[in-house]
């Protein structure tokens, strides 16, 4: 579960199973032009410094632990996620793609909340 660190249970959040979160991140990495399985920490030996993406704090993060992401990191990811959403929003013929688009949209909502309230994004 990813949620704002504002201690309000009514704040927006997003959650996946471990498998679902893995599939979401693999899809985002593919959208960024690389395979997550090639990366250090995900079975490969490619170093994270070799990829240029503002989504690295999300993609190169433990599933449910590790450092929280600060509001500045959340803000930095928003433009790229919005571009991915715009790119795929009109194609709803594939149910898997439709699910990924819904995930990106919901994640954007959570990130915007973190930025607007100046709170961290918590991995829990």
Automatic annotation (TrEMBL):
Domain of life where this protein originates: Bacteria
Protein name: Uncharacterized protein
Organism encoding this protein: Streptomyces canarius
